[in-house]
Amino acid sequence: MMSSNTNFLLSIEDLTVSFDGFKAVDGLNLYVGKNELRVIIGPNGAGKTTVLDMVCGKTRPTGGSIKFRNRELVGMAEHQIVRAGVGRKFQTPSIYENLTVFENLEVSFPRGRSVMGCLAFESTPDVVERIHKVAEDIFLKEHLDIEGAFLSHGQKQWLEIGMLLMQEPELLMLDEPVAGMSAAEREQTAELLKRVCKDRCIIIIEHDMEFVSRIAHQVTVLHLGKILCEGTMSEIQNNPKVIEVYLGH
Amino acid sequence: MNKVYTRIFAGRVGTLNLAVVAVLLFALLPATLDIFRLNLVGKYLTFGFVSLGLVWLWGKGGVLSLGQGVFFGLGGYCMAMFLKLEASDPITTKIQSTPGIPDFMDWNQMTALPAFWIPFKSLPFSLIAVVVLPTLVAFILGVAMFKRRVGGVYFGVITQAIALILSLGIDGNQGYTGGRNGITDLKFLHGWDIRTQHAQYVLYFITCSLLLLMILASQWLLSGKMGKMLLAMRDREDRVRFSGYDVSAFKIFTFCLAAALSGIGGALFVLQVGFISPSLVGIVPSIEMVIFAAVGGKTSLYGAIYGTLIVNSGKSLFSESFPQLWLFLMGGLFIAVVVLFPNGIAGICDTIRKKISNRKKTAPSSVAGKDKRESVMLGELSAPALKGEK
Amino acid sequence: MFGYTWSELSSIFVMQSFSGFSLFSVLLLMALGLAIIFGQMGVVNLAHGEFMALGAYTVYLCSEIVHKHIPALAPYYFIVAIVAAFFAAGLVGLFVEWSLIRFLYKRPLDTLLATWGLSLIMQQAFRSIFGAREVTPTLPDWLMGSFKPSATIDIPINGVFVMGLTLLLTFGVWLFMFRSRTGLQMRATVQNRVMSGAVGINTKLVDRFTFSLGCGIAGVAGAAFTTIGSTGPDSGSRYIVDTFLVVVFGGTASLLGTVASAFGIAQSQSILEFFLKGTMGKVSVLTLIVIVLMIRPKGLFASKVRS
Predict the structure, then answer these.
(1) Shortest distance, CA A17 to any CA of chain C (angstroms)
(2) Is C5 near chain A, with CB under 8 Å?
(3) Would an 8 Å CB–CB cutoff place C286 in contact with chain B?
């Protein structure tokens, strides 16, 4: 397998993982460029979440390589991958329920990440300013002093996206960011994502086709751990293989 | 100045807490108890250091160690080795077949001081070792376990096994460690007789001051980002990791801190009680130390003091008069704290305080909510509630 | 080697490994019960040793009653006593699950502390009822004596009996867990509680039964224990750490792992105990286990699954 350097931001080559013999992801190749907004769709069990898990270091692949800015991510610890510039949002909103919105964002600010740095950390004006900026982006400016636990489901999703934005990642991976959101919230989220993808690359897993068609540049369809096809939304929707996978035999 | 006040003394309620504890330890107890009882309190307070460490490790860090006796013992043995060497000068020990070595070595037919004892002839070395050795051991264990994500009950079981190993190991090497009897007959600290009443008073006050100092230092550390980080870690460890933090480093930090505190406690124990033995290292003392922290409230810094004092006083009281009843009571205490009062005395005080403040005024809900959270974070005990408790 | 001749050394090996077999039996029986409770339910039962002691005391009681009132049955009582030990420990286990454990299922660290409290209470109860002194049931004659295959080797019959009992019970547990419908329900509940409830398994009942079964097996371990040692209030607590290490070392999900690790730990402990003085044999074995667990925290027989 050739594993030369590429111009892609993220290049996944021959990625495989098996759990006790079951291949959840099987020889996957995926390339994502800078400033691209890529959506991954696929039926349940296609291996979408597992791919993200492997990129961010949560699951260790059985074989293959994941290169981010031509740097191998396989084998790095989760926090090192984050520090390299990869952010990950989970399927269920994963925020700190006992901290306020402000503190949630403050803790996500990429400074004072070592134990000693943490002890010496001070919330300087630039930190506060950035928190306010991000809070405005994620529509939570009015709720800075509210504890995470008291936010609505949609607000929690936004907060988690905000926490990722605090880290200024070059690659943002979002697992079902609009799940459980109202129609109005979906619209706001689409607008938010369009705004933030200007200076970074985003990978999104999503089931909601209407939402996908509104935001996607490129769509990748996964099926049984392999790529079924890639293309624009309209190409995908007219692809007979995709129709068969989704509608069944 | 204002910042120092909020960060170190934790604001008005924190200052009140400090005042109540200070009055209790520095005035009330010394004024009412004879030196024998006061020395006993001083001994209990050395366990308070372990409880304080457990508040950090278990309450704040979310990791329960059942082997804190190991670090208490290491600190204690470091101190005791120095004192024993001072008590074993060639003139005092001239009737031994090898004068100049500790008596138990002589009884075990040893003819020279083992190499690892030699540095403990130096007081500065011993004092440094009291803190550094437990920290180092905790660091090694912490790296080995937390880097591999060993946590929860596994960590508990393994630390318990380590406590068993150390206590059996000390027990089995009488010539090197004094064996089951431990290191006894400790008399002088650099020429100062630690057995006199005067020395016991001095050591008591040193213990109290150090303990309060450690609490204030803890408050300072926890009031900054560290407190939020630990709360976040208990809340959602995965998220912390994916915010770019090395979670294991923070766990190692709290484990080392808890070990260092326990080591200091152990050294102060030896100075006040005059001996150390494996019976303070093993499984039973280690898990009892957990209950001290649990009774006080596992997230409450001041609770560590109250929990330690109450359980130990209860133990002395009952095991003197009704030894049979004590184990039932102790067992019941473990169950009650876990099932009925998971936040211990601090939790009870919090509830009482909330009821009182709710009756007094109906404060705006957002302010009350913020207030509640702060008090949970800093583990404050309110002064009026405390008086009700006593 | 250590000043022994080769024939002496081989005799020592055979006899020590036989005393290792007795330790193996007790450890394995204890670990079987614990593996069910800890491995299947995630409950850390630090009072497990006391359930073993309970079984041992039950055998003692049976022995006393039979020898006082119906001495004619003395040769046979031991078999009945084993069954009684199982049910006594199992019933107390049932009560403990109902009154304490069921409140703590989602708080594993708290079960640790609560069951430690329980163990203190049970120990003191034993002390109050049976006294602080160790007791020994009168064993039937057929359990006494030993084989002498050679002049220097001496194999006690009770050891062989306990060994047989252990193997029988291990096989029984395996059959039950992997071949019976109730065993299937137990395993299903562990893997997915909500789903098991949805397909009609009474998960609360399964929990209660599982815990009580684990305790019952500890009771049998106690019965086995009476043949090789005398029973005191703290007999059980002496084995609790070893037992936990056996379960963790073997990998909590694997029955074969439990058997293998009980065997390895018991054998190395009893052989090392002969060559190293005092407690150092135990210390070295425990240290070795802890080091291995630090390198392989999931134990020796763990499988890889999606996290």
Answers:
(1) 10
(2) no
(3) yes
Is A1 part of any domain?
A: no
Residue A149: give the domain boundaries: 10-247
The residues spanned by each domain of chain B are 2-339
B249 with A114: Cβ contact below 8 A: yes
- Kindly state whether residue A2 falls inside one of the protein's structural domains: no
3-state SS of chain C is: CCCCCHHHHHHHHHHHHHHHHHHHHHHHHHHHHHHHHHHHHCCCCCCHHHHHHHHHHHHHHHHHHHHHHCHHHCCCHHHHHHHHHHHHHHHHHHHHHHHCHHHHCCCHHHHHHHHHHHHHHHHHHHHHHHCCCCECCCCCHHHCCEECCCCCCCEEHHHHHHHHHHHHHHHHHHHHHHHCHHHHHHHHHHHCHHHHHHCCCCHHHHHHHHHHHHHHHHHHHHHHHHCCCCECCCCCHHHHHHHHHHHHHHCCCCHHHHHHHHHHHHHHHHHHHHHCCCCHHHHHHHHHHHHHHHHCCCCCCCCCCCC
Put simply, the answer to whether B324 touches C119 (Cβ < 8 Å) is: no
Separation CA B105–CA B85 (nearest Å): 11
Least confident of B376-380, C220-224, C243-247: B376-380
* pLDDT value at C20 more than 80: no
Average pLDDT, chain B: 89
pLDDT digits (tens, 9 = 90+) for B150-190: 888 889 989 999 999 999 999 999 999 999 999 999 999 98
- Provide the shortest C-alpha distance from residue B256 to chain A (in Å): 12
**pTM score of the predicted model:** 0.90
So what's the ipTM on this one?
0.89
Task: Give the DSSP per-residue string, A125-187.
Answer: HHHHHHHHHHHHHTT-GGGTTSBGGGS-HHHHHHHHHHHHHHT--SEEEEESTTTT--HHHHH
Is residue A5 in a domain?
no
Domain tally, chain A: 1
Q: Is the CA virtual torsion C85, C88, C91, C96 positive or negative? A: negative
A-chain residues near B369 (CB < 8 A): 147
Which CATH number belongs to the domain containing residue A35 in this structure?
A: 3.40.50.300
Interchain CB contact of C306 with A (< 8 Å): yes
Task: Report whether pLDDT(B386) > 50.
Answer: no
Tens digits of residue pLDDT in C164-182: 889 999 999 888 888 888 8
